[in-house]
Amino acid sequence: xxxxxxxxxxxxxxxxxxxxxxxxxxxxxxxxxxxxxxxxxxxxxxxxxxxxxxxxxxxxxxxxxxxxxxxxxxxxxxxxxxxxxxxxxxxxxxxxxxxxxxxxxxxxxxxxxxxxxxxxxxxxx
Length: 125
Hints:
By secondary structure, this protein is mainly β. It has strands at residues 3-7, 10-13, 18-25, 33-39, 46-51, 58-60, 68-73, 78-83, 92-99, 114-115, 119-124.
């Protein structure tokens, strides 16, 4: 199986930046598409960003497009989410996920087979 471990969360002021990491084991990240999802208290889990198996294509929620960047480093077997211009509404637990995802289904949580434990991101005003 695949194990995903997120890290890099923390407390940051509005307008600041964080980089989340998702370290994968059991299989290389190049074998899967990966996505980032987030869930705030009292809210449903929502799609944030995704990257195709090859890394050639990326997808973003409208709320984060232009601010967040997803990438993968095959040599380190790690997926990243660079978050810039953070807003208080970005506060949530962020989850990394991996799976075999078709090109029109990257935003659906059900498309992903493996999930990390989550890392807390808190943005203060």
